[in-house]
Design goal:
Layout lengths: L19 E2 L4 H10 L2 H8 L10 H13 L8 H5 L2 H13 L19 H8 L5 H9 L15 H17 L4 E8 L2 E2 L6 E2 L5 E3 L2 E5 L4 E6 L11 H11 L6 E6 L6 H9 L8 E6 L3 H8 L7 E6 L5 E11 L16 E8 L3 E4 L5 E4 L2 H7 L1 E4 L2 E10 L5 H9 L4 H12 L10 H25 L9 H9 L3 E5 L4 E4 L5 H23 L1 H7 L3
């Protein structure tokens, strides 16, 4: 009896593997970098000392492509090297960009992309002998913000150039800065134990809401408390803002509830006037008492509105609280800020005793975590906000809560979409550089989506982009001067690439006219 085979296709090996690429749509991202003038940004930030071996631009492009194609470790660079079509595109780029030309390889060049060992050598530039010495001298259990190598400033400058360029393309006069940490658990033996009892890193991030980009980040050990030196971080972030920004506001969680930090923002700087802020405050016993003193009629129901404009009434209420904190070394002329409180009724367990009395059961954890208080016949969980913003309490509350939206999604994209959730080394400096390159990769990806892709792909995650564009196989044919991608006319990738190329050409013309980001940078330094 003849048995039917379960196989559907016959496999044959392609004789000319350089004709094929599994990264069909990634070519438009490289074209976007060309139109975006990325090469010029790298040239201004990274000064090459010689023309030996791979340039800084080679390594940066490789690590950015690694992030966009789903790579999670340095060794995944071999996936790029195995793709014959992608190597053809990269060689084409090397002929176009000055920063990739004229490199000399003493033993000859055998690879298009740097090997894993070469990439580790590049990351090693960002190690600091001072950091290693301080790490060894710091007692176990003590937290300290470690210094990074001087070369690390080139990564921060590169990210600032990307942000300045984004400002040229979509000018913003207001910068709302969301300041927050994200805890990243790691198995690196040199990482420090966080308050959650895991070995972790604890980068402090500053996100610019209007441009939807990460403005600044400082890589930290896991045992460094969230709010340490937050005022210094704010100062450095303000220095990163490009020309054209006239007004700044800041949002933060309770880590920012530091009176020196609040007073600095209320006073303003030479460049910016008073900086508006909304910061979650500690729910101390004195604050709780002030909340209990609020008249019942002062509480305003919180009504939220979704993206389509529909309004929803929540179970939460907000009110202004007459509260002056008890602080050490209180100055007579210290500013007095507004305090707001929110409350929400919670479900509790009741027990009826024999005498008819009712006792309420809540766990110690819930009472401490939710700041439970009894008001009237209900039990409420309470939270507080300190602010110097005007407007009614509901407006301030809704503004403050936007901090928990896209900025927290940014942390997810860095650790899940990019390679920021898995670090390559036990060296602090190398991991710090890896983290910052993930930020630069994500910022560039979002600008690519914003300025080159159609509306339905402008805000999607990398998984969707890989399925729709980046990870689709194509055939490449190279003529005497032109590299051609062969795509089925009915395939959606054909339409997407045509759309992206049209947008990239227009983007290039705009930036050629505006003399791009260098003038924008010099005007604020």
């Amino acid at each position: 009896m003849r048995r039917e085979s379960p196989l559907l296709v016959k496999i044959e090996e392609e004789k000319n593997e350089s004709n094929l690429s599994s990264f069909g749509g990634i070519t438009t991202f490289l074209e976007f970098l060309t139109g975006f003038k990325f090469e010029r940004m790298v040239k201004a930030s990274f000064k090459e000392k010689s023309n030996q071996g791979y340039s800084s631009l080679h390594h940066l492009l490789t690590l950015i492509l690694l992030n966009l194609t789903g790579g999670q470790s340095v060794s995944d660079v071999d996936r790029l090297e195995e793709d014959g079509g992608l190597k053809r595109v990269f060689r084409k780029l090397e002929k176009k960009w000055d920063g990739l030309k004229g490199r000399v390889f003493r033993k000859g060049r055998t690879r298009v992309f740097p090997s894993a060992s070469r990439i580790f050598g590049f990351l090693n530039r960002f190690n600091s002998d001072e950091e290693e010495a301080e790490r060894e001298s710091t007692p176990e259990g003590k937290s300290k913000i470690l210094p990074v190598a001087d070369s690390f400033t080139s990564l921060a400058e590169l990210n600032r150039s990307v942000v300045c360029q984004a400002q040229v393309l979509r000018p913003q006069e207001t910068a709302t800065l969301d300041m927050d940490n994200n805890l990243i658990v790691t198995n690196k033996c040199t990482a420090k134990t966080s308050y959650k009892k895991d070995k972790s890193y604890h980068p402090f991030n500053v996100y610019w809401a209007e441009l939807d980009l990460m403005l600044f980040s400082e890589f930290r050990d896991g045992n460094v408390p969230a709010g340490v030196e937050q005022l210094r971080i704010l100062r450095e972030s303000l220095a990163q803002l490009p020309a054209g920004v006239k007004e700044v506001s800041v949002r933060s969680d309770t880590a920012g509830y530091q009176h020196e930090f609040l007073e600095f923002m209320d006073k303003g700087t030479d460049r910016f006037d008073k900086i508006g802020f909304s910061v979650s405050c500690d729910v101390s016993p004195s604050f709780r008492q002030a909340v209990l003193d609020v008249d019942e009629q002062e509480w305003q129901t919180v009504v939220v509105r979704d993206a389509e404009g529909n309004e929803y009434v929540t179970r939460q209420e907000v009110a202004e609280v007459l509260f002056v904190p008890d602080t050490k070394n209180k100055k007579k002329n210290a500013p007095v800020f507004r305090y707001l409180a929110t409350r929400e009724a919670v479900d509790v367990q009741y027990e009826f005793k024999d005498n008819g009395q009712i006792s309420i059961f809540t766990s110690e954890y819930a009472e401490k975590k939710l700041h439970l208080e009894e008001m009237g016949e209900k039990i409420y969980k309470i939270f507080g906000i300190v602010t110097n913003l005007s407007g009614n309490p509901l407006q301030v509350l809704l503004h403050h809560r936007k901090r928990c939206g896209r900025s927290e999604q940014e942390h997810s994209r860095l650790t899940r979409d990019m390679a920021g959730g898995r670090f390559p080394s036990s060296s602090f400096g190398e991991n710090a550089a890896w983290w910052y390159l993930c930020i630069i990769s994500l910022n560039l990806l979002k600008l690519y989506q914003r300025h080159a892709l159609p509306k339905e792909l402008k805000t999607v995650r990398i998984k969707t982009l890989n399925a729709r564009m980046f990870r689709i196989a194509v055939k490449m044919i190279e003529g005497s001067r032109q590299l051609t991608l062969k795509i089925g006319n009915s395939h959606s990738l054909f339409t997407l690439i045509k759309h992206a190329q049209k947008k990239i050409v227009a983007l290039n013309e705009i930036l050629n006219t505006k003399r791009i980001w260098l003038e924008n940078q010099s005007s604020v330094q």
